[in-house]
Amino acid sequence: MLAKTKGFESGQNVEIYNNQVIINSGDIELAKRQKLPKDEIPKPEVRNIVYIKAGTPQGKSSYEGPLREIHHKTFKKTVEAFEAGLERADSDGIPLEELRDVAEGILDVYKQAGINFLEELLDINDSDIEHFPMGHQLREQASDIIAIMERKETEENTEEISEIKETLVAMDQKLTDVTKKADDQETENADLKKQLEAANRALEEANKGKVDGDGKTKEAGEDGKGEEAKTEGKGEEAKGDGKKPKKAATAK
Fold first, then answer.
1. What is the distance of C-alpha 203 from the center of its chain?
2. Any residues with CB less than 8 A from the CB of 118 and at least 6 apart, and which?
3. What is the pTM of this model?
4. Residue 52's closest CA among 35, 70, 27, 40?
């Protein structure tokens, strides 16, 4: 007997099972249509493939075929139970045991019909509910229990959403403060950069003035020495011109 796991998730009855599939059935069919000899027709290649069947409690099938990656998320509990070799998966549905003042024997009647959760009981139509003990009464009670649980879940979700919103507001404020601080720091850095540039310009101007001043002083000093030498030369020349040359002595 092939392994099979049942579960109830996302409002659907789920069955996961191993299915023997002829993977080359297309090739076989084509060979037959071409009327090939029997020895040329491919032999069936059988392979076990994991299949999944999902549908509403009323029996409307939404999918039946090979197990796909998306089913590992949609029907996670049932897939994990199948991989663990369990016949029944933990369900996210509300078990029939939540019904009040109901004999265990009556619940067994529902379970034998494949009704294990309140959601499934709620989906039984008016004509079929007549065949179940306390059918209308238990379906109405199931409706009340589900409504209460949904309201409670909504309140919890609302509270959780409020907490998330508060956290987001706090994070947004923190981000605003950090951004403002970064902007202020950027402005301060820009001011410091301007001050530094101004100081560098002032230093360059001061150094340039010093170099120009030293050059002029040196040039003036050299010019003064030249004039002095020129003056001294003229004086010597003048002094020499004022004396008459002595006559050479004549031998007797």
1. 53
2. 93, 94, 95, 96, 98, 99, 142, 145, 146
3. 0.38
4. 70
Q: What is the dihedral of CA 120, 123, 124, 126, to 10 degrees?
A: 160
Domain ranges within the chain, ordered by starting residue: 4-92, 95-217
Rounded distance between C-alpha atoms, residue 107 and residue 142, angstroms: 13
Residue 211 CA from chain centroid, whole number: 63
24-49: per-residue pLDDT in tens? 888 888 888 888 888 888 888 888 88
